[in-house]
């Protein structure tokens, strides 16, 4: 659905060139939710805005739904942009227009007849749960409600791609969850391809299928969310995961230094997460273990668990074999 090839983009600041993207390649598949995570200044907004050519790349190619946008100008680009909608961190609503008028806006610009606009506005507001707020102004809405207006407006022209620019960063955790759930439902119902940028791994974990980690204008890691979240390879990805898990790497190292034995990290994925396996392993391999840290949660809809355990005594190869037979991944943190 989206193919970015060898993208470079620099800005001129005080006569100096600042490189924001330094050769980015990215493929987003139809119907997937793709996350781009990175720290402030990594180039996320630039990357997102290059997809609909709000920023024109200095070099490289942007293809959306088979069409090379970077080769278009004027009317061609305007037509192509109708298939790529966007929602924003600060919602970007027209404050002097009602909820209904905000949602109607892209359809008015596109020249739709009023009756068709009205029917579509009603359907969209019902879909995002805002029917009773139809005639309010943005200032009378909560942040979550404003973002729902932004989503309804973005869906107006039936786009193929939705770009989300830190769409939940201004919202509290509960509202964030409800907006992410709404985006996930829309992705499923409409088979809409979603690209979202964020600096929070929890956002990625909740709704993305795949993720790219951006640092200094380059993609340093990319893959399915389960892979990047459970086994981050780059220091940057590891930092984001640790921040999401509220783990301090230094404190964790100190804690581990206090305990005896072998340190293993076990990763469970899918329904196996809930199986009472550890007692069985302890009996089977005649070992003792203590749990040092752990978490059971979900990546999108799939349950996962990750436990760090300290093992003393017993038959380690037998324990490893039984865990492997049950589909549990074992990483040895300390032999
Ligand atoms: N319009 C602009 N003019 C000049 N420099 C810019 C402009 N937009 C971005 N930059 C610079 O490009 C680099 C990447 O910025 P970008 O906004 O894409 O990063 P980001 O990852 O989205 O950051 P944040 O999370 O803080 O929004 C930064 O060094 C930034 O200062």
Automatic annotation (TrEMBL):
List residues of the ABC transporter domain.
Answer: 2-241
* Domain of life, per lineage: Bacteria
Q: PANTHER family, per this entry?
A: AMINO ACID IMPORT ATP-BINDING PROTEIN (PTHR43166), METHIONINE IMPORT ATP-BINDING PROTEIN METN (PTHR43166:SF30)
Q: Which Pfam families match?
A: ABC_tran, NIL
Q: Which UniProt keywords apply?
A: Amino-acid transport, ATP-binding, Cell membrane, Membrane, Nucleotide-binding, Translocase, Transport
Q: Report a single Gene Ontology molecular function.
A: ATP binding
Q: Which organism is it from?
A: Roseateles terrae
**Protein name (record):** D-methionine transport system ATP-binding protein
Q: Indicate whether Zinc-finger appears among the record's keywords.
A: no
Q: Which Gene3D superfamilies match?
A: 3.30.70.260, P-loop containing nucleotide triphosphate hydrolases
């Amino acid at each position: 659905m989206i193919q970015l090839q060898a993208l470079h983009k620099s800005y001129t600041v005080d006569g100096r060139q600042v490189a924001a993207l330094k050769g980015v390649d990215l493929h987003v598949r139809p119907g997937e939710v793709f996350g781009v995570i990175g720290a402030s200044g990594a180039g996320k907004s630039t990357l997102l805005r290059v997809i609909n050519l709000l920023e024109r790349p200095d070099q490289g190619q942007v293809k959306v739904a088979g069409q090379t946008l970077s080769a278009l100008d004027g009317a061609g680009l305007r037509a192509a942009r109708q298939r790529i909608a966007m929602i924003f961190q600060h919602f970007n609503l027209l404050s002097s227009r009602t909820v209904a008028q905000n949602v109607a806006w892209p359809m008015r610009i596109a020249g739709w007849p009023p009756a068709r606009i009205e029917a579509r506005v009603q359907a969209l507001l019902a879909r995002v749960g805002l029917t009773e707020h139809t005639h309010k102004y943005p200032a009378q809405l909560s942040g979550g409600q404003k973002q729902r207006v932004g989503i309804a407006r973005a869906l107006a022209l039936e786009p193929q791609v939705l770009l989300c620019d830190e769409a939940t960063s201004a919202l509290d955790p509960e509202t964030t969850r409800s907006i992410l759930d709404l985006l996930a439902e829309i992705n499923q119902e409409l088979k809409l391809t979603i690209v979202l940028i964020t600096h929070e791994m929890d956002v990625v974990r909740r709704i993305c299928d795949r993720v790219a980690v951006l640092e200094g204008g380059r993609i340093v890691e990319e893959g399915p969310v389960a892979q990047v979240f459970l086994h981050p390879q780059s220091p940057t990805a590891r930092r984001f995961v640790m921040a999401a898990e509220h783990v301090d790497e230094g404190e964790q190292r100190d804690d581990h230094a206090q305990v005896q034995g072998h340190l293993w990290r076990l990763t469970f994925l899918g329904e196996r997460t809930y199986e009472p396996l550890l007692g069985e392993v302890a009996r089977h391999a005649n070992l003792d273990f203590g749990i040092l840290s752990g978490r059971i949660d979900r990546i999108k809809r799939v349950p996962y668990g990750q436990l760090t355990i300290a093992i003393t005594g017993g038959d380690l190869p037998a324990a490893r074999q039984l865990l492997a037979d049950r589909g549990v991944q074992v990483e040895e943190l300390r032999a």
